[in-house]
Amino acid sequence: MGRRRSRSVGGLRSRAGKSALRFVLFLVIAIFVALRSRSKHKADANSDSPAVAVTTTRDTGRYKPTGDEGLGAAVAIMIDNSGSMKEKAGNDTRPKYQVARAALEEMLASTDSFAAKQPGFPIKIGLYYFSSGVHTLTPMQAYDAAAVRAALDSMPSPKGGTAIGEAMDVARKSLYESGVIRKYILVVTDGENTDGRPPREVAQQIAQRSDGAVRQYFVAFDVDAKNFAFLRDVRGEVLSASNALSLRASLDTIYRGKILAEAVDAGETLTPPPTKKP
After folding, report:
1. Does 62 map to a domain?
2. Fewest CB atoms less than 10 Å from the CB: which of 29, 139, 207, 277?
């Protein structure tokens, strides 16, 4: 009888101990959850939550020039200077960045003959290079052959990523500060976008907010031109180039065959002065 009572008391103590242990564990877990929830709430209150970013209004109005615009054409040339431009394209012996700079210098030389035939029609050129960011070589200004050569020679060694979309937006801004009606973006790149906004998004925004006034051209150098097929949706164009010869040909087609050829018709875009009623 004594043994049974001893076992019974021992069992009660064992069950009581287990219950107490479960209660302690439950209490610890409850305190942990409460503290974690409080900490998360405090962190959310002090941070920029995704909801805030989504509800932030974005300017979607028409781009406005910084001053009056007259006859002329402005070309913002954006040159890829990412790390991959150190590589060679096709059977070329030079790295791609050297091939591109020589081809661009040759392309811009045709501006001299155009200016001789159209002395009253200004051509403005802005040179920029991009990698993970965007940098100015020469600001938007009247074409100067010596300045162009010096600027191309001053480009640093390629490195970093490929911020195509950001480069396009910098180009757009410089065009709206140019003071002329015709506006062109020319991008030479050998890769896909890796930094900043996607070029598709920027291209669509530029087309919409400029009402198509900014024409967008790409040369896909040693990269599949299909990566930039979205340009067709904004009345832009992309040409491919696999080596030095084809790069010169593509740049000539766009610059002399498209941009300069269109520029002579710029007067058609001028709004005629209002006629006075008798």
Report:
1. no
2. 277
